[in-house]
Amino acid sequence: AAGAAAGSRRVARAGAGALVAGWAANVAALAWRRRLRPAHLPGLAVLGAVVPVVYLWHFLRGVVAFRHLPRF
Question: Average pLDDT of each block of 10 consecutive residues along the chain (72 residues)?
Fold first, then answer.
């Protein structure tokens, strides 16, 4: 996003590469030590993209809900 905003193709490519690498690492972590058939790969690819968004949503929801409570 920073590369696109600044108009720098080099930074945009680096950001896109980091995004793809993170997505691939997430998919690899979800598939670790599981027997997958080729039919399972499209669903796993979508799941790899959705899981971080869901995690972030629930994390932020908890931050807003419990921001006034002490940690310990």
Answer: 82 90 93 89 92 92 80 66
